[in-house]
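Render Calcium:proton antiporter in 3D.
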Amino acid sequence: MTILGRRLDWTILAPPAAIVVLVLSWGRHPGAVVAIGIGIFLIGAVLSAVHHAEVVAHRVGEPFGSLLLAVAVTVIEVALIVTLMVSGSDTSALARDTVFAAVMITVNGIAGLALLIGALKYRMAVFNPEGTGAALMTVVALAALTLVLPRFTTSTPGPEFSGAQLTFAAIASLALYGIFVFTQTVKHRDFFLPVEEGDTTEDGQVDWPVDEDGDGHADPPSNRAALASLFLLLVGLVAVVGLAKVESYPIEDAVEAIGFPHSFVGVVIALLVLLPESIAAARAAARNRVQTSLNLAYGSAMASIGLTIPAIAVASIWLDGPLVLGLEPTQMVLLLVSVIVAVLTVVPGRSKSLQGFVHLVLLASFVFLAIKP
């Protein structure tokens, strides 16, 4: 059934409901109880937006699907960062903290969870090392260019880029992301397709999703359903941007109230926007499509840097105050260890549960050190 033909569910109702809440709450500073209620609608808008991105992605096929989902999530991330930078009082390092958190969550959290699930269910998690390695290589280059180099440049004091350096980093990030997308979708698309087509059960039998035409592939949604999901996706993104603006003060107040460092706001943003991708990656790994999970993980990390940094660079023209991008020493150590572990994981093209567990321990270390630096 199409999205228009089935009964209404929460993914259809959430975007317009969030718009209604946005209209009622715009321009207000809600109290704690009201903020929690608005937060529920914000999370619902995020989850529904990514769900509709998945529907559209299913229509266009893999790896376009993973790409579309990553871009949709990055739009949400940029919206949250910019609204908080405009509304907050101490946001000079918010972009850095959010982007770094997104990298750690995707490279260690999403990838580690997918590898662990795939290995536990099918003994080994299998993927294409050529495509995955290319994605990881691009993530490493983007992270080094935008998050590590500012710590060592000398044109401006502190871990900041000068205007010319920020412009170059933004252009280089877009160029790297653009050439990777071309490689993923045109030049070497086959490197990013699942190693085994279809859903494989524990006894090795193929368990296909709904396949009404009997062609051996899950049937994509109709054009009508895809267009409806595209419209709801746009509505959901508008709602997310607006509700993020309304929730900006409560988020910062909550982090301060529980005694966490202000930098933990970036972790909250990254956890919020990457939750749907984490669920999607885990579901793909459970169907023995670890390649799709890794496309989501590394694609999100890449989009988080390659699209967020240029957007923040443009926004900084109108924003007051410095823009801190250089990582702290502890963060650089975590990034370096994560890169080494990821390379050792990707090279063989298959993974045991050990690799997934190591990645998840690195994520736990990042979260703990974000709370207790």
